[in-house]
Q: What sequence folds into this?
């Protein structure tokens, strides 16, 4: 994939938004504790892909990204 046309700061911001919303969904809708949700997201292979700007996952909805968890 090609590099998205966003600055490193924009990428970081968007990645953090998606990550925070994924954690929120896990806690509010799927009954995970905050600690469990954080652990599930940050240790998942999908978070590694989300952290790679070239995948473009940071442009996707948090629910879409979460569906791969």
A:
């Amino acid at each position: 994939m090609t590099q998205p046309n966003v600055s490193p700061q924009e990428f970081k911001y968007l990645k953090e938004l998606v990550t925070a919303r994924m954690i929120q969904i896990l806690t509010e809708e799927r009954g995970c504790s905050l600690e469990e949700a954080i652990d599930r997201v940050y240790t998942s292979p999908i978070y590694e892909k989300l952290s790679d700007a070239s995948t473009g996952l940071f442009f996707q909805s948090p629910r879409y990204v979460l569906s791969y968890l």
Remarks:
- The longest helix spans residues 8-28.
